[in-house]
Design a protein that fits this description.
About 5% of the residues lie in helices and about 45% in strands. With about 350 residues, the chain is mostly beta strands. The strands form six sheets. Strands 1, 2, 3, 22, 23, 24, 25, 26, 27 and 28 form a ten-stranded mixed β-sheet that branches. It has a four-stranded antiparallel β-sheet with strand order 4-5-6-7, with no helix packed on it. Strands 10-11-12-13 form a four-stranded antiparallel β-sheet, with no helix packed on it. The longest helix is centred in the C-terminal third of the chain and has 17 residues. It is globular, with a radius of gyration of 19 Å. The N terminus is likely disordered.
Length: about 350
């Protein structure tokens, strides 16, 4: 097992593992909405909202059911619609993930088994075929395209280059799950911080597994103990409810992993705290082993708290209310836990 970063406030565990410790002193709180794109807006309507990515000029939105990419400004006004359903250049079958790498936007199109590269203005540049079923993508400045998926069973990632596809990020022995030959939909997440470290969120173990660019394991840090135990128990109960592992392709607890400018990471995960506050994500600090929750206040309308949340740095949140295909933005502020 890798050794977690130095310093920090890690929870002690008898199993010898390193855990993030949820902050007891502060939270990032989502405020009142200040911009809105209604789901019935005549300028643009979404079939679904598969992913939202903040850029310097606004937001890219991946529509999974009406396959295309919609560009919005920071007031959520439509700027441009690019792509359509199809198999040709700039066309999509199921755009499900968005990632940014400097001046490029990457679109994971699982339906066509490829990744499309766009400019920050939305212009199509090229596309690359990817191996296997993919759950997430990231572009490394040295290694190139990295794809989380099932291409290499003993590794988290496939490295895609012009010379071919190779395995990257070997799964540590203690984190391997024996699926007994059953098909399991890949759900691991991947992102890269400015120091070049590759971070994988192991969806089965709810652990942040980090690798150096040479492929060496850097650290293994588990999500906060109580939250992790609750999510794993919920996943097991859901599997049993629907008929066991032969009937369930997979259950995903963490739905987004992304880098922040200060080297920390944001993991989107929904949980209900004892005080009825809804946690919508964790800001993870691998050095301090601290997890600061991103929360809705307890009094917030549950339609919002059960919907999707995407962040624009740690200044703004983009909200997709449950049962709608509309969007709203809201400010984020760091507050003391007891306020």
């Amino acid at each position: 097992m890798g050794v977690a970063g130095c310093g920090g406030v890690s929870e002690a565990r008898h199993d010898g593992r390193a855990y993030f410790s949820e902050s007891t002193g502060q939270v990032y709180e989502i405020g009142s909405s200040d911009a809105r794109l209604d789901q019935l807006d005549e300028r643009v309507s979404f079939g679904s909202i598969a992913d939202v990515l903040a850029t310097p000029g606004g937001y890219f939105v991946a529509d999974g059911l009406d396959p295309r990419i919609v560009l919005l400004d920071r007031n959520l006004d439509p700027v441009r619609i690019v792509g359509r359903e199809g198999e040709g250049p700039g066309e999509y079958e199921f755009p499900s993930r968005l990632a940014r790498a400097e001046d490029r936007i990457l679109v994971l199109d699982g339906g066509n088994g490829r990744v499309a590269y766009l400019t920050l203005d939305g212009d199509f540049v090229e596309s690359k075929r990817i191996p296997g079923l993919a759950s997430d993508i990231a572009l490394h400045p040295e290694l190139g395209l990295l794809v989380a998926g099932d291409a290499f069973p003993d590794h988290y990632l496939a490295r895609v280059t012009a010379q071919g596809d190779t395995a990257f990020g070997r799964i540590p022995e203690e984190l391997r799950v024996d699926a007994g030959g059953l098909f399991r939909w890949p759900m691991d997440l991947v992102t890269i911080t400015a120091d070049g470290v590759i971070h994988v969120l192991d969806a089965d173990q709810l652990a942040l597994v980090s690798f150096r660019p040479d492929g060496e394991l850097a650290s293994v840090i588990f999500l906060p103990g109580d939250l992790r135990a609750s999510k794993l128990e919920s996943a097991q109960e859901a599997e049993e409810t629907f008929g066991g592992p032969t009937r369930v392709l997979g259950t995903q607890s963490v739905t987004t992993l992304g880098p922040l400018d200060d080297g920390r990471l944001f993991a989107r995960i929904t949980s209900v705290r004892p005080d009825s506050v809804i946690t919508k994500g964790l800001v993870l600090d691998p050095e301090r082993l601290e997890a600061i929750p991103l929360v809705f206040p307890a009094a917030r309308n549950r339609q919002w708290t059960r919907g999707g949340v995407y962040i624009d740095g740690l200044d703004r949140a983009v909200l997709n209310p449950m049962w709608t295909v509309g969007l709203e933005t809201a400010p984020i502020r760091l507050v003391a836990q007891d306020q």
